[in-house]
Amino acid sequence: MPLENVRHIVLVLSGKGGVGKSSITTQLALTLSLQGHSVGVLDVDLTGPSIPRFFGIEGKKVRQAPGGWVPVDVHEAQQLKTRHTNGVADGETAAAAPSEEGQKTGGLSCMSLGFILSNRGDAVIWRGPKKTAMVRQFLTDVLWPELDFLLIDTPPGTSDEHISLLETLLKQTTSSARPNQLAGAVVVTTPQAISISDVKKELNFCKKTGVRVLGVVENMAGFVCPNCSECCNIFSKGGGEVMARDFEVPFLGSVPIDPAFVMLIEEGVRPRYPKGTVVEGKAMVEREDGVEGDKEGLLVEKYRECSLAPVFEGIVRRLVEDVRSRD
């Protein structure tokens, strides 16, 4: 069984489109890798497969092998180079700032319909039965390596893909030697009331199908100004936390919009910030006027220097502790 190499499966869900599920999935995967876990990402958003774009591997294709498909590698398990910083955190001098030399990262691989389409601009015009068959094939025919975590990025709502996904997963994981293989779901929302209203349906969907909610992430909770690093709550803030409290599920954290992360994904530019920017006690690397952005290095290496990385460190640490506590 292809999923027998997977220790924990985590779904990323939302009842509404455009809330940033793929962005959250990408950052969860990068952070898990930075914490030393081997990670796979399965993209079952068949009509809008964006995971290849997020990881910068659009030009790659999956390989056929005896028994199924071989997923595309983002990076192998390795030790990253020293993280250099010219920032100062909490009164420390730059020389005294903690070094990340030799940081071990886990391997990261992906599977998406985007790797199979002959042209990334092709429209996927499929009826329900064909979508259902594709989701089942993704769950039964992908030859994952040994993984600590498999993250499944889903389309919005509670459609055919979700029903097929859960039916197949529950069937396969029930007979698994690991009783907690299907660990649960991370539910993504934005702070606005209209988003909260739709995402509540997803929480009810989880309740009815017996999928444990690992927690709620409130995305787009503010905008980080690229000039001063102040965070403005343009979409309000706190709605996700209130919703999590109402449904008695964990609230994992709020994630602002960071233009530096957008530039990292869109153009591969290493994040840089105004002098003195500190996030979660970590000094961010300063931007140098007149110097073009550095594009060298692996995505996971450059992501370490993003202001969202310390935010996701806390989110992922809570997530992993919860999952492992039930093993």
From TrEMBL:
[4Fe-4S] cluster binds at residues 225, 228. The keyword tRNA processing does not apply. GO terms for biological process: iron-sulfur cluster assembly. ATP binds at residues 15-22. Residues 83-104 are annotated as: Disordered. Component of the cytosolic iron-sulfur (Fe/S) protein assembly (CIA) machinery. Required for maturation of extramitochondrial Fe-S proteins. The NBP35-CFD1 heterotetramer forms a Fe-S scaffold complex, mediating the de novo assembly of an Fe-S cluster and its transfer to target apoproteins. This is P-loop containing nucleoside triphosphate hydrolase protein.
